[in-house]
Amino acid sequence: MAMSLNFSQNVSFISNNSSNTTPQAATSHYILETELSKKIRYVLLGVIFVLTLVGNITVCVIPYKNRRMRTFTYFLVTNLSVSDAAGIIYLPFIIYYTGIGEWPFGQAMCKLVNPSITFFGIVTTNTLVAIALDRFVALVFPFKSRPGHRETVLVIALVWLIAFLCVLPAFAVRVVEGGFCVEVFPGQTKEKRIHYKTTYNTFLYLINNCLPVVIIMLIYVKIVMQLKRNSVSIPKEKKSSWKHRNKQLNGEREREQLQTSSEKNISLSYSTDVESLRKRHKMEKEFTNMLIAVVLVFVFCYVPYQTLFFVADFVPAVYAWKYLYVVYPYLYVLMWLPNAINPICYGSMNEQYAKAFKSLLRCTSQSQVYLRGRLNSLSHVPNTAFLSLSSRSNATKEPLQPSSAVFSSETPENNNAGADSCSGNH
Question: Distance (Å, rounded) from C-alpha 203 to C-alpha 1?
Fold first, then answer.
């Protein structure tokens, strides 16, 4: 959020505006974070940074590798990963800034860093809402045609456009002042500037937290109810003992012998349809559970940090809380946690993503083995072959070509072996 980047600025505001004490005395009552705690926090942020980039970039590659996952829903999940990965890029700037206590990156980066983090945060929440609406339509109106390529592009473009328009004022009001990257809103008086700042921060909090969470929760309640209704309408597979199952099989064989061919076809068609419904219901349930987990992670990790500084806009005494220096840094770590956890949710709670992750890892492993084999083959070429290439006395002789000799021993089909299974044309 735009209102919550500069913790040092907020605390200095409390310190420097204490009328009866010096700034040092005003901050003396805080319980400060220990050096060990700082080291642990930096390690956690480093792990989150790496996991976020690796996990979300992998999610972005999956639709390129797997044609079956080039659908509207999976493209929305990919869009979520793009915003998570792009937002984390600015984390090192914030860590360095809060570490040294002043902004060293200049005016341009001041206008870019924090508004960009807010921008990608709004893209994330808008995408979560779009995914929830998509699942609602797919379940409640199953015969409605799914969005095509053009509709997918339009929806994703709208998500990014709305986010950009929301943070446009933040790009304008960010300036470097007194060593801090701060928001300076227009206004002839201090009261006016504070009023504009509070109004804008309230707008961002509603757009980025309250409204999306309320809408998403209501939609998923409806989705869960629809899934329960669907499960009731699907005939359940009866569980029975081994002996009872044998009797059932014997009875089915006797009935099959008495049935006509048309009756057999009808029975087979019915069982196939029921099995297809069961599989589809299972996939819908798994995907919905995955998305609910992503939303819950967002609510419990992302929202608390934003809420703290939203409340502080109306109750400045929050900045004087003696545990602020201890609680704030870990709330900030918690805010970035969904970026790293989301890809783990995809892989562990959705069968399609789990298969895609395994396939991608297998392809990467095969590529490494393939390249290692090539390098080993090249390393066994005699050194005299390379010496003959540079020898002037042998210039008239036909030089050896070790690379072509090695590669020509295999047919084109063998050269492409393994590439087909790891290409994007599955």
Answer: 11
Q: Provide CB contacts within 8 A for 314, sequence distance 6+.
A: 198
* pLDDT tens track for 143-161: 788 888 899 999 999 999 9
Q: Which amino acid is at 255?
A: R
Do residues 167 and 275 lie in contact, with contact meaning Cβ atoms separated by under 8 Å?
Answer: no
Position 271 scores a pLDDT of: 52
Please give the torsion angle defined by the CA atoms of residues 416, 417, 422 and 426, in that order, rounded to the nearest 10 degrees.
90
User: Measured between alpha carbons, how far is 17 from 23 in angstroms, rounded to an integer?
Assistant: 8
Closest CA to 324 of 1, 2, 14: 14
Can you read off the two tokens belonging to residue 330? 């870990």
Q: For the residues of 284-320, what is the DSSP string, one character each?
A: HHHHHHHHHHHHHHHHHHTHHHHHHHHHHHH-GGGGG
The Cα–Cα gap between 271 and 276 comes to 9
Chain centre to alpha carbon of residue 36: 30
Angular region, 304: left φ>0, alpha ψ -120 to 50, beta rest: alpha
CA distance 321 to 315: 11
Mean pLDDT across the chain, nearest whole number?
Answer: 76
Q: How far, in Å, CA of 188 to CA of 201, rounded? A: 19
pTM of the model: 0.73
3-state secondary structure of 182: strand
- How far is the C-alpha of 374 from the C-alpha of 97, rounded, in Å? 46
Q: Rounded CA gap, 153 and 78, in Å?
A: 12
